[in-house]
Amino acid sequence: MDDNRRRSRVSTHFTAKFRQPGRAPVALLTENISLKGLLARPNAGIESGQTGMVRIDLSGAAAIEIECRVIRSEGSGVAIDFMPMDEESFLHLRNLVRFNAPDADRIDSELKTPAFDTD
Predict the structure, then answer these.
(1) Of 3, 13, 24, 25, which is most buried by a Cβ count within 10 Å?
(2) What is the mean pLDDT of residues 11-26?
């Protein structure tokens, strides 16, 4: 894990949607995901600083839906930072990350330190 990162990233290729009120959803393909955010392509129509909701549909009616902020949008993709989320989305996200991680126990050990700034 990069020294500046608080959470391990795992390689994924899930379809996600970035939504903002009054705008059509933008489809994304995740490249990696962590308990703190994701990197995805493409970034058409998404600009740095925007806030919205990201949604990843799972099997059946299960979905991960998280309020987020775009921290980087450039030709290489879009980096999205997750904001605090509800318990159900967190549990689905945790399971998704653990399932795709080479060391699932490491993901659990990362939960011992805060991922979000408290100031």
Answers:
(1) 25
(2) 92
How many domains are there within the chain?
1
In a domain, 118, yes or no: no
Neighbouring-strand partners of residue 63: 57
* Residue 33 exposed, middle or buried by CB count within 10 Å (0-12, 13-18, 19+): buried
Task: Provide the domain limits for residue 93.
Answer: 10-109
Please report whether residue 117 resides in a domain: no
In this prediction, residue 108 carries a pLDDT of: 82
Question: Could you tell me the pTM of the whole model?
Answer: 0.83
CA distances from 15 to 31, 37, 85, 116 (A): 10, 15, 19, 25
Is 71 in contact with 79 (CB distance < 8 Å)?
A: yes
